[in-house]
Design brief:
heterodimer; A: 288 residues; alpha+beta; Uridine Diphospho-n-acetylenolpyruvylglucosamine Reductase, domain 2; Uridine Diphospho-n-acetylenolpyruvylglucosamine Reductase, domain 3; Enolase-like, domain 1; 3 domains; five-stranded antiparallel sheet; four-stranded antiparallel sheet; 11 helices; globular; B: 782 residues; Aldehyde Oxidoreductase, domain 4; Aldehyde Oxidoreductase, domain 3; seven-stranded mixed sheet; six-stranded mixed sheet; binds flavin-adenine dinucleotide
């Protein structure tokens, strides 16, 4: 569990960091280090240079601005977990933050790193799919916005260019009638999900659902947006029949594989159960 | 009179001041001048021939000093070593590897990082050979042979009891239940992995071996026996076992890494450190359990148990490297008749070689007692359910009665004492058993799944009496050496070795009780073979039954001498003196007294004429019998039909370990033990695919419960002192690990019995429960 040798740089501005990435194409960003360092220790990855972005100021914040909730890439999971704004208005995010890893890991792990790592087992990707988030990337030519639906391109692969740094995540700001929930089954604290479901809905004044987002964790090679399930909810009153229909469509969208966390069949059934529970909870929250 | 903190006092643990401030002294803390690091190249295959080992690239890495292979060790005839079970084990292979993660090449370097880079750069060509991982397949004709030096994969057959009488009783019984029960391969996963610093002094031909061992004295003798021919002589071997971060049986065996480190130190003339990483520890160090048990339990028409039959296949991996007493290849499995009164039983075990790491150690369990208890407690529950009887009432009807002790069990043990009815009744009262049954019936009517599980275990610990128990011929006594200083303070040394059990406190309290010296002023030392008296170490809950008894007896000898000195000082006859707490006084006049401190000073300044100076004693205690701790556990679970998750709502544990020395430490042992019983019941398992690739070789895959998963434990006690132990204590370190798993499984099966479910093997994972629910039409459609 000892990594091979690597170089280490710790720039203090984004521009400097991007310059290093341009010079050294094999360099990797080091954020919280809780995905990257284990890979290095198992010698599953080797990296010639680590670019530590922990000393760059201004990358850690949580604020509402211009119709968005903006989260700096270096915001720690523990900050999300304890932030009152998120606790009050973004229950889906608050639910997810509480189930990521364990408190020690959450003190270090960052939201940006969780997304940039593009591990389908990570929790934020499905959450951000459900929210319909936007990713902001900083590159040599400034900032670029990437819709979350275009961000995860493959297993451990994102739309970020090698010389780009994820700098911010934007989530549509909370409005009345919003409700969300994250339902995750894990074998123990610190384990990745056997399966998890993220749900974000909006209920209009007439009690009809006008937007719905559903993201699935760890049941496919990438995080999955359950689009058909979302569509079946829009225009419905989220009665039991609609919820069950959506749950079935979410289960159909999953592409799980059997492993030691469970069989394919079990995971698919779990997606269904968790979708029902998440939707019921989200609805309850939307009404309050 | 001073507070001496004797028996029954929950004094804080003396060792904790250093542990909780990070000042423990573990192997990794030992750094010697000029020290070299050893790291090990391991096999990616479960069975393969080594075609070529190429170290040329690795040799070029700065800091890499050299390599040790099986061929190098073969020159000194050190490539194989004996196991404690009279089998043999490779130190390093010369020809074939037998399991994934087996040690293949030792890499020596000037620092830990260079050693790891060296390991990554060694290139080895292997020719894969056929693999057998399933012990049933291994025992079939034509199976791939694991060992060239053996005739077959069958290692040994062991049996106990009366085969014919058992067959007959089972044929004639009114009810017979049968079940195959698998108790899977698990790992102790101690927080500290294994390691050592071997320091060979070429001038004085002296080896100091700092190592993570639960049995330092036995290890010294083993080193002398195995390496005597290359110049290691027992008087020149000093084994030091410093603070140990958890042992649980996993630090009894001699692992190849230790031997390679010694060989490297002898070759280089420098100290050599080897510390496993977590994956090496989980993948290669001794496993526990792995018993496939075919069980049958019979009852007459009134529901009285009449006979038990168990046939077991034991998977030992590629060698039998269990750490049992020599005469007990299947450990103390014959305790499997349990807490019940019946006369007929037969059990047999066949051991198999497979392409997996060796082991079969007593993971927080006195030699296969967990397997035995799991079998009988599951079977009793199945039998009760099958007969439509309440599992608690069924147990109460079949228990051995208090008046029947000492009780001769059908497989030959003499249970020293017990009161099983009292323990179960207490647990039932604590948890509100009858009300829970009512609640369960109501819930069941609503389609909710709730279960109540009981485990009423009897353990056999404290190995053991010399006529039955030895390891490599050395009898399983244990020792205490107690010296009182002139100021009335003491030092005591033992042949055992604490790994977190709190010996520094517990032993001091036994001595305080016997000698009147405050426990704070009794220093306890263990683990250095140059200073401590010989003993076989700490495992199998034996420290209190053996060394704890030795402490009491040695102290009583000291007190007899103290009486002589007191008589001299008080100018009175010895028989006129009365001992009270910390002093002798003259019968009838309590103001005429001498405290132990007065007496200690006189032992050095003013001994009676004709009495030798000093105040000390050494005692080697040979227990007359084993001790038989017992208890009753009750568990309540709720099952989520949508996800298969089992929620442990309550768990009551009533333990009887006889006299409680330090109730707080006993409580701590039970809490930890219950958690270590919970873990395999729901989470832990090491699995292999058909090619022998391990799954469960790191903590992402080998699941240990955290505080979040761990249920809240409710503990209670009954106290039935051991009649033969000097202070009536029985040993408690393992009761909970042994007793708990069956309570969990019984609760889960109890919740599902009405659906037709009869058994679920541990670990009971959500996936497994959901599959069972689905198969019985009870998975929730949400
Ligand atoms: C024991 C344990 C349990 C865990 N359990 C969970 C869990 O249940 N759920 C879960 O979601 N996660 C879990 N994690 C993962 C944890 O949340 C990670 O820390 C997180 O996924 C990555 O964040 P990080 O800040 O540590 O990133 P790092 O490890 O530093 O980086 C991860 C990857 O992202 C890249 N990267 C990081 N930041 C940026 C950036 N701003 N721009 C571009 N690229 C970047 C890095 O180069 C690297 O390739 C667990 C981790 C551990 C150790």
């Amino acid at each position: 569990m000892i990594p091979p040798e690597f170089d280490y740089v710790a720039p203090t501005t984004l521009q400097e960091a991007i310059a290093v990435l341009e010079q050294k194409p094999d360099a990797k960003i080091l954020a919280g280090g809780h995905s990257l360092i284990p890979l290095l220790k198992f010698r599953l990855a080797s990296v010639n240079t680590l670019v530590d972005i922990n000393r760059i100021d201004g990358l850690s914040y949580i604020r509402e601005e211009g119709g968005w909730l903006k989260i700096g890439a270096m915001t720690r999971e523990a900050d999300l977990e304890h932030d009152p704004l998120i606790g009050q208005k973004y229950p889906l995010l608050a639910d997810a933050a509480r189930t990521i890893a364990d408190p020690l890991v959450r003190n270090m792990a960052t939201v940006g790193g969780n997304l940039a790592h593009a591990d389908p087992a990570n929790d934020h990707p499905a959450v951000m799919l459900a929210y319909g988030a936007v990713i902001v990337a900083a590159g040599p030519n400034g900032l670029r916005e990437i819709p979350i639906t275009q961000f995860f391109t493959d297993l451990f692969t994102t739309a970020l260019a090698p010389n780009e740094i994820l700098s911010e995540i934007r989530i549509p700001a909370h409005k009345a009638g919003n409700g969300g929930c994250y339902q995750k089954l894990e074998r123990k604290v610190g384990d990745y999900a056997t399966a998890a479901v993220a749900v974000q809905i909006h209920i209009g004044a007439n009690g009809v659902c006008d937007t719905a987002g559903i993201g699935l964790t760890n049941v496919g090679p990438t995080p999955i947006k359950a689009a058909a399930a979302e569509q079946t909810l829009v225009g419905s009153k989220l009665d039991d029949a609609a919820i069950k229909r959506a749950a079935q469509l979410a289960a159909d969208a999953a592409q799980p594989q059997s492993d030691y966390r469970g069989t394919e069949e079990y995971k698919r059934a779990l997606v269904k159960t968790l979708t029902v529970r998440a939707l019921r909870k989200a609805l309850e929250r939307a009404r309050n | 009179m001073a507070e001496i903190n004797g028996l029954g006092k929950s004094m804080k643990r003396k060792e904790d001041a250093r542990f909780i401030q990070g000042k423990g002294n573990y192997i990794e803390d030992i750094v010697l001048p000029g020290m070299i690091w050893l790291d090990i190249v391991r096999s990616p295959y479960a069975h393969a021939r080594i075609v070529n080992i190429d170290t040329s690239k690795a040799a070029k890495i700065p800091g890499v000093l050299g390599f040790i292979t099986g061929k190098d060790l073969e020159k000194y005839n050190l490539h194989w070593m004996p196991t404690l079970m009279s089998d043999r084990q490779m130190v390093l292979p010369t020809d074939t590897v037998k399991y994934q993660a087996q040690e293949v090449v030792g890499v020596l370097a000037t620092d830990r990082y260079a050693a790891a880079d060296g390991v990554a750069a060694v290139e080895i060509d292997y020719e894969p050979l056929p693999v057998v991982v399933d012990p049933f397949k291994a025992l079939q004709p034509g199976a791939p042979k694991v060992r060239e030096d053996k005739d077959s994969n069958h290692i040994w057959h062991w049996e106990a009891g009366d085969r014919e009488a058992t067959d007959r009783a089972i044929r004639q019984a009114a009810t017979v239940v049968k079940q195959r029960i698998y108790i899977p391969r698990i790992h102790v996963a101690s927080i500290e992995t294994c390691g050592c610093v071997a320091n060979w002094d070429p001038i004085n031909k002296h080896l100091t071996m700092y190592m993570t061992t639960q049995a330092p004295h036995a290890i010294r003798t083993v080193i002398a026996l195995v390496a005597g021919h290359v110049g290691l002589s027992e008087e020149n071997i000093r084994v030091i076992s410093p603070d140990i971060g958890g042992g649980f049986g996993g630090k009894v065996p001699v692992y190849p890494g230790y031997v390679i480190a010694i060989a490297a130190s002898v070759l280089l003339g420098k100290p050599v450190k080897w510390i496993e990483d977590r994956s090496e520890n989980l993948q290669a160090d001794s496993f526990a359990r792995d018993y496939h048990m075919d069980c049958e339990l019979a009852a007459d028409g009134e529901g009285r148990i009449t006979a038990l039959r168990i046939k077991t296949i034991a998977d030992h991996g590629y060698t039998d490297a269990a750490a049992n007493p020599s005469k007990y290849p299947a450990g103390l499995f014959s305790i499997c008749t349990g807490s019940y009164d019946y006369r007929t039983a037969f059990t047999e075990v066949d051991a198999a070689y497979t392409n997996k790491p060796p082991g079969g150690i007593a993971y927080r369990c006195s030699f296969r007692v967990t397997e035995a208890v799991h079998a009988i407690e599951r079977m009793v529950d199945i039998l009760a359910h099958e007969r439509g009887e309440d599992p608690a009432d069924f147990r109460l009807k079949n228990f051995i009665k208090k008046e029947q002790f000492p009780y001769k069990s059908p497989l030959g043990w003499e249970f020293d004492s017990g009161d099983y009815h009292a323990a179960l009744q207490k647990a039932m009262d604590m948890i509100g058993y009858r009300e829970l049954r009512k609640e369960q019936a109501e819930k069941r009517a609503r389609g909710e799944l709730m279960g109540i599980g009981i485990s009423s275990f009897t353990e056999v610990v404290g190995a053991g009496p010399s006529h039955q128990f030895d390891i490599l011929g050395i009898k399983m006594f244990d020792s205490a050496e107690v010296r009182i200083h002139p100021t009335g303070k003491a030092i005591a040394r033992f042949g055992t070795k604490s790994q977190g059990q709190g010996h520094e406190t517990t032993y001091a309290q036994i001595l305080a009780q016997e000698l009147g010296i405050p426990a704070e002023h009794i220093k306890v030392e263990e683990g250095d073979t140059d200073t401590a008296p010989y003993g076989l170490g700490t495992y199998a809950s034996r420290s209190t039954p053996t060394a704890g008894a030795a402490a009491a007896v040695a102290a009583r000898r000291i007190r007899e001498k103290a009486r002589k000195i007191a008589a001299h000082l008080l100018e009175s006859a010895e028989e006129d003196l009365v001992w009270e707490v910390d002093r002798f006084y003259v019968k009838g006049s309590p103001s005429r007294f001498k405290t132990i401190q007065d007496i200690a000073l006189a032992a050095y300044t003013n001994p009676p004429p004709g009495v030798e100076a000093g105040l000390e004693a050494t005692f080697y205690y040979d227990p007359p019998n084993m001790t038989f701790p017992f208890g009753s556990y009750i568990c309540v679970v709720d099952i989520d039909r949508g996800t298969g998750q089992v929620h442990v709502r309550r768990f009551v544990a009533v333990d009887d370990c006889g006299t409680r020395i330090n109730p707080m430490i006993v409580e701590g042992q039970i809490h930890g033990g219950l958690t270590m019983g919970f873990a395999p019941a729901f989470m832990e398992q090491i699995q292999y695919d058909e090619n022998g690739n391990i799954y469960g070789g790191n903590f992402m895959d080998y699941l240990l419960p955290t505080a979040v998963e761990t249920p809240r434990w409710e503990t209670g006690k009954t106290v039935t002192p051991s009649p033969h132990h000097p202070i009536g204590a029985k040993g408690v370190g393992e009761s909970a690990t042994v007793g708990a798993p069956a309570a969990f499984v019984n609760a889960v099966v109890d919740a599902l019995w009405h659906l037709g479910v009869r058994h679920i093997d541990i670990p009971i994972t959500p996936d497994k429960v959901w599959q069972v629910l689905k198969a019985h039409g009870a998975a929730a459609e949400e």
